[in-house]
Structure prediction request, 350 residues.
Amino acid sequence: MPIALITGITGQDGSYLAEQLLAKGYTVHGMIRRASNFNTQRIEHLFNDPEIYNQRLFLHHGDLTDSSNLNRLLEKIGPNEIYNLAAQSHVKVSFEVPEYTAEVDGLGTLRFLDSIKEVGLEKRARFYQASTSELFGLVQEVPQTEKTPFYPRSPYGVAKLYGYWIVVNYRESYGLHASNGILFNHESPRRGETFVTRKITRAAGRIREGMQEHVALGNLGAQRDWGYAPEYTEMMWRMLQQEQPGDYVCATQETHTVREFCEHSFAAVDMPLTFEGEGENEVGRDEKGIVRVKVNPNYYRPAEVELLIGNPEKARRELGWQPKVTFAELVQIMAKADWDLAKKEKLLAA
Ligand code: NAP
Ligand code: G4F
Prediction:
């Protein structure tokens, strides 16, 4: 059976992809970072399964900033498929740690591709790069396709731009089976809690349970094309099953504002909101008139990506990929999971 190596296996996407590959019969190797505390919560269920862990799932310490580590891992594992999902993935944080973001998200991709060449895996290993709709930034076309010119708006976007082009370059220069998935925002109950969707659904659950008064957010008018993460990791696998490598947009072709995400989330916990005011003075009130959503300009970004909406026609045509979970269903899934979580936390605290 094929052998896969996943970087970023402890992240949202890595955890879903690992489950899916194991279910398909793969042997899965994951790179994890040394941390001062446990960072494997999202794969704990796999880790604790004696029929899986150290049988078909193996974890290795590593870091995308360490070339010799990458060489050793590739030599030892000899993977057929590599999914490079590891990244400093937070756009706002990238303004605070721009150099580190470039090291990991930009040069880290180069290190990996070069290691594949260095250890002679060019013919054996197929490579997936976690590219992003942040490449489109200040969008030059609506909706965005594989042909839309890029205009990144953050150190994260610029670092990922390097990652994108170095993948294309190694494919064209050395014949590597290397592909870019240009994924639009995708979310789930496993999403990190500092990304806006999860921040909102966590707050909605806790506010509903009386554990929190309100949530403070940044730009409520930003529009995103939000999909359901497990469907997007399935698309990653489909890309590597193609005879020829390529670059694909992965999106729902529907866009919604952060404000709409709030409205759906609070409605899902039976607390419908009404928004009033503008800019920094905008608030979302519940039916009793209590402010539940506020704006805090600290969450604004030095440069913002205002609108993203992707056209996944190429993926539909060539990979047979089509998202099924709608925006309303996605919010329901996340809000329900986080309401349940808040109820559990409340019980534990009692
Ligand atoms: P995530 O939850 O933030 O996970 C990122 C993963 O990368 C974590 O496992 C993290 O390890 C690991 N990592 C960070 N820095 C590393 C380093 N220097 N060396 C090795 N590992 C490192 O991100 P995600 O949402 O699953 O996204 C997966 C990938 O897709 C990322 O590359 C992201 O930029 C890209 N992407 C995401 C979206 C989206 O909407 N989710 C859209 C487009 C592209 P720790 O657990 O130890 O922190
Ligand atoms: O949830 P976000 O932080 O995601 P963002 O910046 O779109 O990036 C995510 O998606 C990218 C794909 O396009 C990935 F490449 C990237 O790795 C990451 O997964 O913010 C979404 C929008 C932004 O416009 C932001 O300004 O929500 C706005 N926002 C408003 N208030 C907020 C907040 N974002 C965050 N994180 N926190 C807020 O309080």
About this structure: The pocket of NAP (ligand 1) is lined by residues 7-8, 10-14, 31, 33, 35, 39, 63-65, 85-89, 104, 130, 132, 183, 185-186, 192 (CB under 6 Å). The first helix runs from residue 12 to 23. The chain has two domains: 3-183, 196-223+256-306+325-349.
